[in-house]
Specification:
The protein is mainly alpha-helical and about 110 residues long. It has five helices and no strands.
Amino acid sequence: MNAMSTVFRRAYSTKTLIPPNVAAATKLSGSAKDAQIAQLVSFYQKLPKGAAAQAKPSGPWGRYKARYIDGDNASVTPLLHLIFGVFVAGYTIDYHFHLKHHKNVEHH
C-alpha cells in the first residue's frame, strides 16, 4: 500500500508541471545549473510568439464550410442548398419510378 501511495504522490506532484530541465537543474550547482537554465531559456526564446496563423481550409467540405458556415460568413445558404438537394434527389427517384411504371406504355 505504501508503494502505491508513493507512485500516486510522484505522478500527481507539482514537479510534473515544471519542464524536466528545470527540475533537474535544481539538483545541480554552479555553472552546470546556469548552463542548463541557459539552454532552457534559449529553447523558449526560439518558440514562435503571438497568435497562430489561420489554417487554410482543405478539401471540398472545408472550403464550403469556410465560405458559408464559419465566422462572419454564416448565412442561410447551406439550408437552401440542402432543400434544393433533397428536391433534386426526390424528383430523380420519382421520375425513375414513373418511367419504370410506364415502361411498356400500358397506361397511355
